[in-house]
Amino acid sequence: MRVVSCLTYYRPYISGLAVYGQRLAEGLARKGAESEVLCFMHRSDLKTEEESGGVKIVRAKPWFKISKGFISPDWVRKMIKAVSRADTVVVHWPGPEGVSAVLWARILGKKVISIYHCQVQLPDGIVRKRLERLLNISERMGLGLSQTVVNSSQDYAINSPVLAGMMAKIKYIYPPVEIPGENKAVRNRIHKMLGRHRPVIGFAGRLAAEKGVEYLLEAIAYLKTELKDIRVVICGPQETAGESEYRRKIASLVRNLRKEVVFIGQIPDGCMGSFYKFLDVLVLPSVNSTEAFGMVQAEAMMSGVPVVTSDLPGVRVPVTKTGMGRLAKPGDAGELARAISEILRNRKKYVRTQKALEEFDMNKSMDAFAEIAEL
Questions:
Q1: What superfamily would CATH give domain 184-359?
Q2: Separation CA 228–CA 156 (nearest Å)
Q3: Which of 66, 73, 208, 348 gives a 20 to 30 Å CA spacing to 301?
Q4: Looking at the predicted structure, is the pLDDT value of residue 241 above 70?
């Protein structure tokens, strides 16, 4: 069976959606599918076609870029070719280009599975809000035409306006979360940058507005009243599509926190365990519905690290399911600091690694996807 997955960004781009897409495409290949990915060439040095992890990767050349999306006649040509020879089409949302893939697949009588990752909330601005509205309309159209819609949790789905009226076709499947691996060289590099300072509070992800990193930085002032040797370690790519304004905001806040904040950059694939090993707690201070789950918190829990995360639909699920952390009100640095402090004072109480390993077993997720795709 040939399965074609359509999404905006794919490896080597790093985001939760891109990582999810890669793990799913490679997992389907391991289960015997002819797995192909159609995405955009987000960097000019990338190949238009290559194979990696048993997956054929086809990249469309963009004509021009709008915010985090692309306009590309090449996408339409390659989509028609890819979808025409597929048995099943998997479309990852958000991404307005997904509408064309769903429409063509339905015209040809193909099976369409839409994975709705999240509802995008763009920063304020007339143009941005119009783009956001158009994106929501395209999502409603594409999801409505799909035979099956996958979402990470019922908690997120019932709180999503985009998914309203579609509950009957939704399947709830956790994102494919791998047990993080370790690498000695990566571990030594991080140790050299951190030294012996304790406690270590971690953040893993892109520097993007929905991540709420500014509230973690603001929480440092509260934490320093009781913790004198604090380190906040930020792991992940700093160059994120469409987030230059937000990067400048974070850089401005960090200027007065050079002693407390350490940027360690992006960790290679399969080595995130080397990062989690140093943490006393991981913090996911997301602020809106663009964050729907947060795979990094499941990874941290599976590595024995408790989590403080925002009390948002979907995002709170790993904590509520495992008890391995605390929730905090989104956008409240004081409450975030109190939750972090509670974890640090009573860390053993929140470590439930085996529960996390059972709850987020990637094999369960892949078996559920394979069943929907009828592999």
A1: Glycogen Phosphorylase B; (3.40.50.2000)
A2: 38
A3: 208
A4: no
